[in-house]
Design a protein that fits this description.
Number of strands: 2
Strand content: under 5%
Number of helices: 3
Shape: elongated
Mean pLDDT: 85
Distance between the termini: 68 Å
Helix content: over 70%
Order of helices and strands: HHHEE
Largest sheet: 2 strands, antiparallel
Strand order of the largest sheet: 1-2
């Protein structure tokens, strides 16, 4: 027996999947067009969040708690990847120090 609550729940899950897919399409455009490496790195971080959101929608749709640890591991990997990219960009964009102690602004 389908109640109004189940119908609303299913409609919201479908709407969330549509929004996730639309965000993914826009995200692919941002990854492709750039314009900078930092923009692409942020877009890849958002891609990890969208994957987690998609898995969360799948878990809510199926009612299976199996996906919760998977989401947790992906969140951890996305966080460590973001920190690694941020540290790499911070080191790359740091101004060079000249031998006389002044900064070389490129």
């Amino acid at each position: 027996m389908t109640t109004t609550l189940h119908t609303v729940e299913d409609a919201l899950l479908v709407a969330s999947v549509v929004v996730i897919l639309a965000a993914g399409a826009l995200l692919l455009y941002r990854i492709w067009s750039g314009p900078s490496m930092l923009d692409r790195a942020v877009a890849l971080d958002v891609a990890a969040a969208l994957i987690i959101a998609g898995i969360g929608a799948k878990a809510a749709l199926s009612g299976d708690p199996f996906y919760y640890p998977v989401m947790l591991v992906l969140a951890f990997l996305g966080f460590t990847g973001s920190v690694g990219i941020a540290r790499f960009i911070a080191v790359r964009d740091r101004p060079a120090i000249r031998p006389d102690g002044t900064e070389d602004h490129r």
